Prior knowledge:
Blueprint: H1 26-38, H2 54-57, H3 62-139, H4 145-160, E1 163-166, E2 178-185, E3 193-199, E4 201-204, E5 207-210, E6 212-218, H5 232-253
Parallel strand pairs: 2-6
Antiparallel strand pairs: 1-4, 3-6, 4-5
GO biological process, one term: protein folding
Main location: cytoplasm
Protein name: Protein GrpE
Amino acid sequence: MTSDPKGFDNDQEPEVPDAGTTPESPSDGARAAEGGADTPPAEGGTPTGETSDPADTGEQDPEAAAAAAAAREAGLTAQLDQVRTALNERTLDLQRLQAEFQNYRRRVERDRVAVKEIAIANLLTELLPVLDDIGRARDHGELVGGFKQVAESLETVAAKLGLMQFGKEGEPFDPTIHEALMHSYSPDVKETTCVQILQPGYRIGERTIRPARVGVAEPQPGSPAGETSAGESPAGDSADGGSGEKENGGPDEG
């Protein structure tokens, strides 16, 4: 008769682990015990022995935040001042350019008008002798027929180009527009006066292309101009002379 091994019960079957489970080893239990210390604390908690950093949690000191905001504002203000200064400089540059352009336009327009007047004046200056001949022919009654029509057409074209004639008898002498070719004295004038038009003057706008050639008369020397009329002076002189003769003749007869 065989005896059962010691420590084994025939009625007790050994435990066999399931196929889906893994036997837990002592080393696994140790790891679990050690890992318990590294388990993160509950929500809102802080691990034991550690302090929170305001910089890590997003919280800052109010004074530091205010200083940072002030510095940022100062930087933006400086940039804004620079932009405004640059804008003012560009605005002044633009205004200067506009003023220079306006001056340029006025100068070009003035030069254009001057060049046009010079060109027309040069052309009409060559025609002045022809116009003088036409004037003399008209004065002598020789401007008739087809020649009269041609002469009038030429004068019309010259007038359209701006040619104007000046110089009349009886107007005061002006050395800027008159050229005196003859000189005389007359008791009929109170100032230097044009008494004869030898050649009319011509101008284009304010530009004189030929002065009027005239004969002038001045008041007689020694007589105050304008105080007595022309007819009163001879009469007065004759009256004085007659009385003088009577006065002188009285004693002789006596």
